[in-house]
Design brief:
Helices cover 0% and strands 50% of the residues. By secondary structure, it is mainly beta. The protein has one domain.
């Protein structure tokens, strides 16, 4: 599990499940956790996500945070990365899971 704290300044704090310390990175700066190298390229707040056929609107006063990132597999084996492996934490230390539709 990986938790990302995203700041409007473009700084992100990465909390790995088993890590004793937090690491800070700039937007676009690669970081390695386990077998993967991640790069968060941007994030943005949206009231509505999805397509014209399947979309979801945030509740009143709420918003979705869309995180754009790339992942490089540093092994020679096929790996599976699930969105459930990530959470976003806000400045009030509230943790949010990915929206999976439905």
């Amino acid at each position: 599990m990986c938790s990302l704290s995203l700041l409007a300044s473009g700084t992100l704090t990465v909390n790995a499940k088993d890590a004793a310390e937090q690491e800070q990175y700039k937007m676009g700066q690669p970081f390695t956790l386990g077998d993967y190298t991640y790069t968060v390229t941007k994030f943005e707040a949206k009231r509505k996500i999805g397509s014209k056929y399947h979309n979801k609107e945030a509740e009143e006063g709420a918003k979705f945070i869309v995180v754009y990132y790339s992942i490089r597999n540093n092994t020679k084996e096929t790996q599976t990365v699930r969105s459930e492996d990530f959470k976003v934490t806000d400045e009030q230390q509230r943790s949010f899971s990915p929206y999976s539709g439905g």
